[in-house]
Design goal:
The model has no long low-confidence stretch (mean pLDDT about 95). This protein has about 140 residues and is of the alpha/beta class. The protein has a five-stranded parallel β-sheet, with helices on both faces. InterPro entries: CheY-like_superfamily (IPR011006), Sig_transdc_resp-reg_receiver (IPR001789), TCS_response_regulator (IPR052893). This is Response regulator. It comes from Euzebyella saccharophila.
Length: about 140
């Protein structure tokens, strides 16, 4: 079980980034928080660090609606590189959208663990991290 959890937030909303970072920072087992403004920026990081498991996150909170590369486009690219990633990464699609089409589309992508409607509360984040640790996923 990893006591040093690396978390990645991929979202273009500054306020959401701040509140998520602050909430995650209060969780003792969260070691590092990486923030990217869009899927393209995050994908560049992944490609640059594909063999560096220390740099890659254990958990990703991925927004749907972002400029340049949205969450679904990021997932299309991630699925292509996943076989080369030497680490299990748990991905949560996070959005303020309650559109059933978005929920269903995310459920069809096996690499997405769950669809979470914003806002995410600190207690919810703690529960997610603790369950992943208990289940040996991080």
């Amino acid at each position: 079980m990893n006591e040093n959890v690396n978390v990645c937030i991929i979202d273009d909303d500054d306020i959401y980034q701040y509140t998520m970072s602050a909430a995650l920072d209060s969780i003792n087992s969260v070691n590092r928080i990486q923030v990217f403004l869009d899927g393209a920026e995050a994908m560049d990081f992944f490609l640059d660090n594909i063999n560096n498991t220390e740099e890659l996150p254990d958990v990703i909170f991925l927004d749907i609606n972002m400029p340049i590369m949205d969450g679904f486009e990021f997932m299309e690219e991630y699925v292509k590189i996943k076989p080369k990633v030497g680490k299990r990464i748990t991905i949560y699609m996070v959005s303020s959208s309650m559109d059933p089409k978005d929920v269903e589309r995310s459920r069809k992508i096996s690499e997405i663990s769950d669809y979470i409607v914003k806002p995410i509360r600190e207690t919810q984040l703690r529960t997610i991290i603790e369950r992943l640790k208990e289940n040996g996923k991080i």
